[in-house]
Every structure is written in structure tokens, then in C-alpha cells.
Amino acid sequence: PVPSFAGIQAVTPISAYVERKLWLHNMGHAAAAYLGFKRVPERRLLAEVLTDTHVYETVKKAMYQATDVLRNRWPNVFTAEGLKSDADDLLHRFQNLALGDTVYRVGRDLKRKLRFDDRLMGLIVTAVENHAEWDAVAEAYAAAFSFTATDSDGLAFAPDSQFLASLSHLSGEEKVKAAAQFSESTISQETISHIVSVIAAKL
Fold it and tell me: Domain limits at 78?
């Protein structure tokens, strides 16, 4: 039996909630950083970039697209209404200036965050395989290739600078393939080709 603790709710299957955390919270967070930096690079806080209407609406759309994928994958675990409520609550929290979340902190570590099995591409692959919409998530992924945010001392995250430099000589499609590290995956070539062509067109 699952022990009872005040304020703690046991959930099952845990994999559904792991995906919700990765594709809704982590993806939305990263999307705000990448889209925000590309559009308003002078703003340092995540809450500040979300005051831009285009950034806000695109992040919201990406998060809603994530809820559709999650609902399709886990129809007996999540409801559409519950997931949309989760997305709205998270977006509201992202807009809290008091948290002091910086675009730099949220977006850095591109090599990990752009992998095929992480927050953005993992969602995109699953959306494609489930015939769900993912254009807003693709826009966020494409924006990550322009992410050169700096810390409070004006310094870029060195591994990100090196990562982007390693991609700079590649064509758009090759850049997306390399960033996603598709060569390490078992994703079908048909799916990869479709994803790569769509995102490359947004670079």
C-alpha cells in the first residue's frame, strides 16, 4: 500500500507525470527563453520577455500543443481541462518577476536541451508520430539556434558558444540533425526528414 502523507498525492503511472513535467513545464520554460531572447534580447528576466505579446502567445500555443500530445498519449490519466489548467498556471508562474528567473539560466545548456529525447525535440517527435500540431514548438526550437544570452557579468555559457560554433558551418537541415543528435536515436528516417525540413525552414 502507498503510505499517506499530508499534502502529497501518489500518482501512477509515473512515466505520464515525468512526461508532463518535461513537455509542459520544462518545454514551456525553454520556449520562453529562446523565443524571448530572439525577439527582445535586451530583457534579462523570463518574466520580462513574456510581456511581449508575440512571445507570450507563441509560448502559450506551444504549451497547449504539449497538452494535446499528453492527452492523446495518456487519455486515462489526464483530462484536456486539467492539462490546460496546468499550462495556464505554469505560464502565470513564469510571469512572476519576484522569482528572478533569468533568460540565461533557463535557456543555457543547448546541447542537452535540443537533444531528440529532451523537452523540445522529444515533444516534437511524439507530436509527429501522433499526428498532432507542433508548429509553435518548432518555432521555439528554431529560435534556440540564435540563443547567445549572457550572465550578469556579460559572459556567455562557454559550452553553448562551443556548441553553436560547431554547427555554424552546417546547412540548416544538417544543423538541426546535429543539434538533435538524431544519429543516436532509433527514430524513423521519415519522421526525422519531416521534422528537419520544417524546423530548417524557420531558421
Answer: 14-200
